[in-house]
Glutathione S-transferase domain protein
Amino acid sequence: MRDTVYKICTKKEWADAPEAGVYEGSVDDKRDGFIHFSTQKQIKRVLAKYFSGQADLLLLAIDVSLLNPLKLKYEGKMGADKYPHLYEALSPSAVQAQYPVRLSDTNEHIIDY
């Protein structure tokens, strides 16, 4: 997917979003005031750093063209990778695919694309 950002979340966090028509984000997203996304090259790093040992995850592929460009910002420290942040709730209609993320026997995340 060309213009795609990714959201890693628990299956439980995402469960009600499609029917509700909105995803407000995780507890961390709500605390920070935006929904944390990743680029494709950031996914493995984010999984290892923030979701270590955690199973029952989903990787949501989100079409950037379906997001409000004024609410999607790429931010980070000077010289560091810029991470995409969405400063509004996510519409489930922007989610183009969902991929289960599971743990291997060695506790590494495996994404079932």
